[in-house]
Amino acid sequence: MLQEKNIHDTLFELLLQQNSKCADEKQDLIDTYKSMGFPSKALEEWKYTDLSDVFEKSYELPTFPNITEDKISALMPISSGIQIVFVNGIFTPKLSKISYQGISVESLKDSCRREACGFNATFNATKISEHGKFEMLNTIFANEGVIVRIARNIKVTEPITVLFLQTGSEQIFTQTRNIIVCDANAAVAFTAFHCNTGKSKSTANIATEILVKENANVTYTQIYNQSPENTDVHAIEVKQDAGSIFTGNSFLVSGGIIRNNIRIIHAGEHCETILNGLYLPTQTEQHDSFVQVKHMHPECTTNELYKGVASHTAVGTFVGNIYVAKDAQKTVARQSNRNILLSNDATIHSKPQLEIWADDVSCNHGSSIGQLSADQLFYCQSRGISRDQAAILLMHAFVSEVVEKLDNDELKAYIYQLIESKERF
């Protein structure tokens, strides 16, 4: 049996040195962090993704380069009057547009300054820190981020765009903690773009908490278009109150290693959750999606559709868990994961799971991994279409089921453009 390597937590020591002020305030969290196992393949939840090297690297402090508004606009494929910009993990108000009636955006730093203990009342309200090493690390040390509040009954008519931009050539570790509170009967949509310029080789550890209050409606769409040198770990924790709707769209198009964790808990009756995902690793990339929905109350619904395409020696992973508690009668849950391998050396792990303790439910799941249809390829080629063009045509049809779930035409066109320009063969 192979022995796991002895991991030295250089990262923690570096962060503790840089943030020594928080040591006393958060000693209990620090003790818990030290007791946690490292996210290596020895652990079931990290069976397919080994990020232990992240803890052994020596990182430089993030810097803030001179980025102009024109540069930011060029990186934002959709127009919006509300935008929140992070450069190398640092919230930048001067590049953001946050003036909208019924919406407040406050930096995490400003909010925590007002709290004697260093925590905002909504900070860690979802208990995200309890769900992993990276989440706990973020809870202890993150000092960059925003708290967004949508007031009761406010219907935001345009998407709030969020840009996570990594730039420069230094090896940096960034941590961002964002908190979204959508009050009762409000509605809002967020579109988050994760991208980089230059030869960025950063590791980003992002934690996002989303509180969807009674009868509120929140959509959160994330798009990753990073270089192969970047590593991204993003945990999204959602708490839905009664009658609320949450829609999560994840497009992992490009990036060296992307680990996307989404956890949702139904904290009231008649919640609705819609999750759509697409992951497209090529070359040596690894794109992993870990999704959990916990049905704790009656008459809630979940619909999940995730698709993956992997080529060369790339690795893709989908692990989906739908938990139905004993009292969550009349739950309706659908989970589907379909995948295509474009080479014999590519790998996709698919692990859909249903854990049902109630007896009056309607739940199903399905998983498939295959290749492009030889008959369909031949049909296209017999009509004068080259094999590569035929493969692109069939791939477009395969991914479109997920892309077309979006209701923004600009965003659809942008994602199709990213997919078509990505090297796959």
Structural notes for this entry:
By secondary structure, the chain is α/β, with parallel strands linked by helices. It has one domain (about 10-375, about 410-420). The protein has 9 helices and 19 strands. The protein has helices spanning about 10-20, 20-25, 25-35, 70-75, 110-115, 135-140, 375-380, 385-405, 410-420, and strands at about 80-85, 90, 105, 145-150, 160-165, 175-180, 185-195, 205-210, 215-225, 230-240, 245-255, 255-265, 270-280, 285-295, 300-310, 315-325, 330-340, 345-355, 360-370. The strands form 2 sheets. It has a 10-stranded mixed sheet with strand order 2-1-5-7-9-11-13-15-17-19, covered by helices on one side. The protein has a 9-stranded mixed sheet with strand order 3-4-6-8-10-12-14-16-18. A hairpin with a 2-residue loop joins strand 1 and strand 2. Helix 8 (about 385-405) runs antiparallel to helix 9 (about 410-420). The two termini are about 35 Å apart. The mean pLDDT is about 90.
